[in-house]
Amino acid sequence: MTDPFATAIEVAAAIRNKEASSVELTDMYIERVERYDGQTNAVVVHDFERGREAAKAADAALAPGEATGPLHGVPMTVKEAFNVQGLPTTWGIPELRDNIAAEDADYVRRLKGAGAVIFGKTNVPLNLGDFQSFNDIYGTTNNPWDLTRTPGGSSGGSSAALAAGLTALEAGSDIGGSIRNPAHYCGIYGHKPTWGIVSDEGHALPEMLAPADIAVVGPMARSAEDLALSMDIVAGAGRTDRAGWQLNLPRPAKNTLSDFKVAILPNHDRAPVATEMADRVQQVGDRLARLGATVSDSAFPNVDVNAAFETYLSLLWGVMAAGLSEEEKEGLRLARTAKVEGEEVPASLARFGVQEHGEWLKFDNLRFGLRKAWQAFFQDWDILICPQVATTAFPHDHGEYLERRIMVNNESQNYFQQVFWAGMITVAHLPSTVYPTGPSKDGLPIGLQAVGAEFNDYTTIEFARLMAQELGGFVPPPDYP
Question: Whole-prediction pTM value?
């Protein structure tokens, strides 16, 4: 077996059936990293020798029939933000370039327990806080479909590595679309789990012990089937909690697209998307209706979208600003006192980056109201389909962080306004699977969100699997044979 774009399930089967060894496949991916990653810059931390040793051990264990799990011998990389014992975890922060992890993150432990072979880590933006993936330690990651464009962020290295065939499987994280944006931009699959069902212990910087509010860790892959397998492996209580609880996620109740009740939201004036993005949502909805699914373009939960987005921004900046220096926080306090005016998302940093605990509690309460509204909505509907961001992958822009712009339908839009599409899902703890739907007119991938009820993760993943049968799934970019 020599197909670098095979799914992780196919790779595992080839190893199990002795059609290829773990060593051969690990060497294949390492050779591809050495051949192609000079232009993509996705796999920025190399652990090749330990990866080869783990592959040798996997092959030796397989010889007497002692396979360790569903990923036995499967070579893969993980996002740089996860602790892997003996490797740096920096989140792109130069001051932490010498931070070497003493032990594996929970997510990594579960992958290794399932037999995975970790041979490297993939690039991220500074402090995981961007729709692009560049930093002063590792440089800039480029989109394999067009090297002048972003692969997304913060799991941009993960998506680029998968799209370029540099790894069999990946692990990402998401608070503002950091799994979903890269999946869309690079034409792969990404799943943002229901909040709290996958342990993020060890997806952390030094002294970070508590789970991050509204942030999740989850799988990225070249197929929906690989997402489901990954969730089988990584979902469940972490080390701190495993003595007291266990997880029992419902399995999909429907197995044909005609059985689904689907609401579509092609666009919203709160954060307008490019016409082609909105049209793709409508086209998918029309196709589902022709297949016999129940489809509505008007169904939506009883939610005040403006209030929901404000709630999300409060919780988002509460997390993202927590690590700021005292000098930076003082600057936000001064800006807040001056009642900074301007576009909502940048101005909200000054408001919520240093909010009082009582204000945060108010929005925390509103968050639970949003969860109830979505729970009621999903009593009647199985899936909501909507855009992930406003455009296809955009050109690199390393300009001033809060002053960046993107062009949407030839109109300038604040760079961070596009977080609306990820945020309205994140704030309600909902699972969302981004799946490819084919290219745009300019040949770049378009992915859409399939959103479901809390804990119905396998339903959104199954829906994405069924959509691949209709639309086709992952397609490799042309310059990575």
Answer: 0.97
